[in-house]
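Example 9 (inverse folding). The structure is encoded as follows.
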C-alpha cells in the first residue's frame, strides 16, 4: 500500500467513524494513524486537495510544478516525454495544502513505454479536485490538444485552462489562444502564466485553492514529494543526459540508483547509479571520447544533487546496455516509470 492508498483507507475509516459504524479496531487504527499531523491539525477553514497537471508533451507541466514549489523537484527539458512518472509534490501553506500531480505528456504512443506513460497520465485524472490543462500559448492548438481536452471533459473535477509560456508570446497571440482554448472545454477558470518569469503563478495557485474543498493537512508540512529519494536522484541524472543529447538517445535511456550511503563524518552522500541504454553505439556516445561525456554529465548532476540533498556528493555512474527495454513492460516498471512496479 503506498501513501496515497493509505490515505484513501483513512478517508474510508473517517467516514465510517462519522457515521458511527466503525468498530473498536477501526477506531484504534484511525486514532493511531491520525495522531500525528492530519486530523488533529485541522483548522477552521483549512483547505486541502489534489490538482493534476495535464497537457501535450513539452507544454510546461513540470516547469510549472517547480515554479509552484519554488524549487526544483521535477526534471524538465526540451525533449518531449521528459516526465516518466506520475509525480506528486506537496505544497503546504498557512491555510491550505495542495497536492500537485505532474504527469507524463499525453501523446500518440509509439511503443510500450509510450503506452505506459499515457495510462499513467490518464489515471491521474481520476479522483482529483482540480484538473489543470496546460496549452502552450505560442503553439497552434492541434489534434493532440483536442484529444487531451476530450479526456479532461470526461473528468468530474473542476477544470482550469493554463496558457503557458506567455513570456515568449505577444498579447495578440495570447488573446487568440484564449479564444481557441475556449472552444475545447467548458473551463471553470483560465489563466495565462509564465513559469520562467513567475508571472501569474500565484494567481494560478489562488484559483486552484479556491476550488479545493475544506479538509485537513494530509501530509507533514515538510514533505515535498511522494517519490523515494532514489527515484528523484535517478531523474536528476537522466535530466542531464536529456539536455546533452538530441534525437534518439534521450528516449533510449533509463537510470537506476543502485545505492545511496550517507557518510555523516564527511557529510558526503555516496551515490551509485547505472545508466541503461539500448545499444552498444549509444553506450559509446554516453561515455564519450576518453570518458569526457559521462564525466560532464556526472559533474552537472552532482551540482544539482548537492542543492537537492544539501550535502557533498560522490557520484559513481556506470553505463550498461539493456536491449529493447522500451518494449518490455516489466523492465519499464522496474525502472519505476509509468505506474512503477506494483508490490
Ligand atoms: N520561455 C518559457 N519556457 C518554458 C516555460 N515553461 C516551460 N518552458 C520550457 O518548455 C520546455 C518543456 O518544459 P517541461 O516542463 O519539461 O514540459 P512538460 O510539459 O513537463 O513535458 P513532458 O514531461 O515531456 O510532458 C522546457 O525547455 C522548459 O524550459 C515558460 O513559462 N516560459
Ligand atoms: Mg514533464
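The amino acid assigned to each position is listed next.
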Amino acid at each position: 500500500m503506498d501513501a496515497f492508498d493509505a490515505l484513501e483507507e483513512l478517508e474510508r475509516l473517517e467516514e465510517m467513524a462519522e457515521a458511527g459504524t466503525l468498530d473498536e479496531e477501526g477506531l484504534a487504527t484511525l486514532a493511531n494513524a491520525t495522531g500525528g499531523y492530519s486530523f488533529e491539525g485541522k483548522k477552521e477553514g483549512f483547505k486541502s486537495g489534489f490538482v493534476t497537471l495535464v497537457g501535450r508533451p513539452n507544454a510546461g507541466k513540470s516547469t510549472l510544478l517547480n515554479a509552484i514549489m519554488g524549487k526544483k523537484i521535477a526534471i524538465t527539458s526540451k525533449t518531449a516525454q521528459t516526465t516518466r512518472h506520475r509525480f506528486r509534490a506537496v505544497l503546504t501553506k498557512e491555510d491550505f495544502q495542495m497536492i500537485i500531480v505532474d504527469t507524463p505528456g499525453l501523446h500518440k504512443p509509439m511503443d510500450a513505454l509510450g503506452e505506459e506513460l499515457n495510462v499513467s497520465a490518464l489515471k491521474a485524472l481520476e479522483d482529483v479536485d482540480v484538473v489543470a490543462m496546460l496549452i502552450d500559448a505560442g503553439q497552434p492548438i492541434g489534434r493532440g490538444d483536442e484529444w487531451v481536452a476530450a479526456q479532461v471533459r470526461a473528468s468530474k473535477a473542476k477544470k482550469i485552462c493554463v496558457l503557458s509560456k506567455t513570456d515568449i508570446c505577444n498579447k495578440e497571440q495570447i488573446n487568440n489562444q484564449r479564444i481557441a482554448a475556449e472552444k475545447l472545454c467548458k473551463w471553470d477558470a483560465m489563466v495565462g502564466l509564465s513559469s520562467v518569469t513567475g508571472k501569474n503563478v500565484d494567481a494560478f495557485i489562488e484559483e486552484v485553492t479556491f476550488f479545493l474543498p475544506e479538509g485537513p493537512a494530509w501530509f507533514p508540512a515538510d514533505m515535498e514529494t511522494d517519490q523515494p529519494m532514489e527515484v528523484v536522484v535517478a531523474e536528476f541524472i537522466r535530466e542531464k543526459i536529456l539536455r546533452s543529447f538530441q534525437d534518439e538517445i534521450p528516449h533510449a535511456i533509463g537510470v537506476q540508483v543502485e545505492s545511496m550511503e550517507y557518510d555523516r563524518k564527511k557529510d558526503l552522500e555516496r551515490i551509485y547509479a547505472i545508466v541503461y541504454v539500448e545499444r552498444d553505439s549509444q553506450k559509446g556516445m554516453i561515455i564519450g571520447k576518453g570518458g569526457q561525456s559521462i564525466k560532464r554529465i556526472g559533474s552537472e548532476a552532482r551540482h544539482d544533487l548537492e542543492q537537492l540533498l544539501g550535502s557533498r556528493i560522490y557520484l559513481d555512474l556506470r553505463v550498461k546496455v539493456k536491449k529493447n527495454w522500451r518494449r518490455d513492460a516489466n523492465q519499464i516498471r522496474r525502472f519505476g516509470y509509468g505506474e512503477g512496479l506494483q508490490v
